[in-house]
Write a structure and sequence with these properties.
heterodimer; A: mainly beta; 6-stranded mixed sheet; 5-stranded antiparallel sheet; globular; B: 0% helix; 45% strand
């Protein structure tokens, strides 16, 4: 079967760094996406990885290891506005996105 | 219109009633999707359409139907609503390219079936 695992909830302090992990087992692989979703809002795109390694975009970075079925999203210099859910999604062999349940990130002052 | 719009924003519906959720995009994307999002679960695909005139079933299609008469519109119909269909429904679209499938989401419809 297809499965995406990520922690349900994490807590971090404003100004700190947090790493949100995602492991996946899917039928085929056509890229891994991270989305941010604020409460009551739609998901919005953060990052995309299709090759192994680290992709950096400002305060956010995303890492992929295809051989390990593993990715992480790294958030630096945390701000209160980063409080949100972070969704990991993998493109499967049919180019559909398979979604994890999301990690709720709570930022404390 | 900029991006994807959905209507209504929210709705309370009596069980057994028929309901159509509307979705319109102006990005000329080929592919469109309907998801439901429930607490503690990931986004679950209900139906999708890779191009106008075609549709396919996702992970949880039962009780729902869709049509794709043109590129822009992708309505979702609940023929006879049941309480288990209480959820937040998101419409999304993408270019549908084979090697990159970033999806853009509408604001969602919060549906309560009593």
């Amino acid at each position: 079967g297809q499965n995406i695992d990520q922690p349900t909830e994490m807590t971090a302090t404003e100004g700190a760094i947090v790493q949100i992990n995602c492991t996946y087992q899917t039928s085929g692989f056509n890229g891994l996406f991270w989305y941010q979703q604020h409460a009551g809002e739609a998901p919005t795109f953060l990052s995309y990885n299709v090759l192994d390694g680290l992709e950096e975009k400002g305060r956010f970075s995303s890492f992929l290891s295809r051989s390990k079925g593993y990715s992480y999203l790294l958030l630096k210099e945390l701000q209160m506005k980063d409080s949100a859910s972070y969704l990991c999604a993998v493109g499967d062999s049919n180019y559909q996105l398979i979604w994890g349940a999301g990690t709720k990130l709570i930022i404390k002052p | 219109i900029a991006g994807i719009t959905q209507a209504p924003t929210s709705q309370i519906l009596a069980a057994g009633r028929r309901m159509t959720l509307r979705c319109t995009q102006d990005m000329r994307h080929n592919a469109m999707y309907w998801y439901r999002q429930d607490l503690g679960l990931g986004l679950r695909l209900i139906h999708y359409s890779n191009t106008a005139g075609t549709t396919g079933k996702g992970e949880v299609p039962d009780g729902y139907s869709v049509s794709r008469a043109n590129t822009d519109d992708f309505p979702l119909t609940l023929a006879s609503a049941v309480p288990s269909q209480t959820s937040v429904y998101f419409c999304a679209s993408s270019d549908g390219g084979a090697d990159y499938n970033e999806q853009f989401f509408g604001p969602g419809t919060r549906l309560t079936v009593l």
